[in-house]
Design a protein that fits this description.
Distance between the termini: 44 Å
Helix content: over 70%
Number of helices: 7
Order of helices and strands: HHHHHHH
Largest sheet: none
Strand content: under 5%
Radius of gyration: 20 Å
Oligomer: single chain
Length: about 200
Amino acid sequence: MANVLTNLRTTVLISVLLALAFFFIYVLAGQGVGLGEPQVLESLLRWTHVVAGIMWIGLLWYFNFVQIPTMPSIPDEMKPAIGKHIAPAALFWFRWGAAFTVLTGVLLALAKGYLLETLTLGATVGFAPGFVFMGIGMWLALIMAFNVWFIIWPKQKIALGLVEADAEAKPKAARTAMLFSRTNTLLSLPMLVAMASFQTLG
């Protein structure tokens, strides 16, 4: 067992296989839903959407609740380890978590048949409150993902020295990245309440 747990790739692969086994056993155990039914695809899309979202928002909160507040107290000789190793790895999973959260969310909304209604904030169906609420959540998520890919990540590349830049550009880039990361933190709870509440109240 220790050999499995010391290898992250193996651990994650087994976790995915267990999750899929649980899912298909549940479906096949007489839930009245065949494997070819749309609910099966929708359920798998929802699961991948939630998993990607946990990766994205989890890392957003890691940066804002752990890394950024802790950096001033880290001795200067230790800071390069964060900038050269930990932050780039975290930013990789952060930005791709954002991308897959949006992709699976769009695919799920398409599969459920309400993508247009939510993106137009319910304008196509007389501004139905559920679609307005979910639409606000979707637009917040899109704004947050835009911030990740087109502001935070490019500025972090400068701040971390992953691209060539003047020395004075690094602190400015770091501050901009922090402010937009903090903006995403501010938007994250409203976005999540819209997403979660639509599923139970919509």
